[in-house]
Design goal:
The structure is a homotrimer. By secondary structure, the first copy, chain A, is an alpha+beta fold. The first copy, chain A, is built from 3 helices and 7 strands; from the N terminus they run E-H-E-E-H-H-E-E-E-E. Chain A has helices spanning about 15-25, 50-60, 75-85, and strands spanning about 10, 30-35, 40-45, 90-95, 95-100, 105-110, 120-125. Chains in contact: A-B, A-C, B-C.
C-alpha cells in the first residue's frame, strides 16, 4: 500500500474484510500486523473524519516531529507514535463477520510517509 | 455492563474468569475485545486503587477533555485515551488459569460514560 | 530475566526465536506476554540504539517519575508507561520464521527496575 503524507490514518477495514472473505472462517480471530517501526495500526471511529484528525494532532502535540531527539534520521517521533498506537490489532470473527462495533474502523497509521507499506492479515478459526 | 462516570476503570477480571470456566480450556489464549471507540481495555495493578486513579489523572493531563479538538461531539479526548490503552488484551491460559501476574487485573476503560458497554471474551485452546 | 536499571528496553528477539525453534511451528502466531504491571513489551527498531533511548526519554517527558501521584510506592509513572507500551505483542509466524520487519526487534520494557522479571512466549499453529 502507498501512503500519501508524513502522518496519515488509512482506513483498511475493507482490505481486512477481503482477506476474511477468501478464507471463509465462521468463528475465530482476525489478526492485523504491521511489520514496520514508524507505522502502526489502530481501531477508531469511521464516521466523522475529525476524530482521526484529532488523534493525529494530539499525537503531534505530545510527540512533536521537531522535538529534541538523539536518533539522527529525524523520525524518532514516528517510532514513538507507532509504539503508542501499537503494531497489531486483533478482532474477533463471529458468524463470518468481524465483530467490529458500529463505529469501529481499522486504521493503518503512517507516521513517516509517504512510503510503500505492508500489512499482514491472519485468520484463525473454523 | 453499565459504567458510572465519564472516566472510570472497571475491574472485569472476574467476568473474564467466568467465561473461561464455561469453556474449560486447559492451555490456550484468552482474548478480551471492546467493540467501542471511546472505551478501551488494559491490564494493571489490582491491589492499590490509587494506581488506577493515577493512570486516569495522567491520561487527563496528557489529553484533557476540554482541550482544543475539531470533532464536534466533545469526546475526542475519549477516542485518543481509548487508543492509548488499546481495544484488546490477550492473556495466556496455563493449567486452566489465566496467566495473570500476582498484581495484574483486567480493566475495562470507560472514557465517555456513563453508558451501557459491551466486552467480548474469546477462548482458544484445548 | 534480570534487568539492570530503573528504565531499560531489553531486546528479547533471540529468546522469542529460541521458543519458536523448540516448537517447530511453520505457520501460526507467536504471543509474548508480560505478567507484570510496571513492565511492558513492545516492538521497535533494532538497528540504532538511539531510537530506544528517544522512546525512553519521550516517555519520561510525558510521564515523569517525579510527577505528582497518589500511589505511595513511587512508581505510578512505571504503571502508566507500561500500559502505554502494552503487556503483550503478537507476531505472525510464516514459513517457520517470525514475520518481523527488517528493522523490528522485540523489546521487554522495564520501568521499575532493576528486578527479576518474567516473560511468557506462546506459539500457536502447525
Amino acid at each position: 500500500m502507498a501512503t500519501g503524507s508524513r502522518a496519515q490514518f488509512v482506513d483498511v477495514t475493507r482490505q481486512v474484510y477481503a482477506e476474511l472473505a477468501k478464507r471463509g472462517v465462521k468463528n475465530g480471530m482476525c489478526y492485523v500486523y504491521v511489520p514496520h517501526t514508524t507505522a502502526g495500526i489502530t481501531i477508531n471511529e469511521n464516521a466523522d473524519p475529525d476524530v482521526v484528525a484529532d488523534i493525529l494532532s494530539t499525537l503531534e502535540r505530545l510527540v512533536p516531529a521537531d522535538g529534541s531527539y538523539r536518533h539522527s534520521e529525524g523520525n524518532s517521533d514516528a517510532h514513538m507514535k507507532a509504539a503508542m498506537m501499537g503494531f497489531s490489532q486483533m478482532i474477533p470473527i463471529i458468524d463470518g463477520k468481524l465483530a467490529l462495533g458500529t463505529w469501529q474502523g481499522i486504521y493503518f497509521c503512517e507516521f513517516d510517509g509517504p512510503r510503500r507499506r505492508k500489512m499482514l492479515v491472519g485468520i484463525a478459526g473454523e
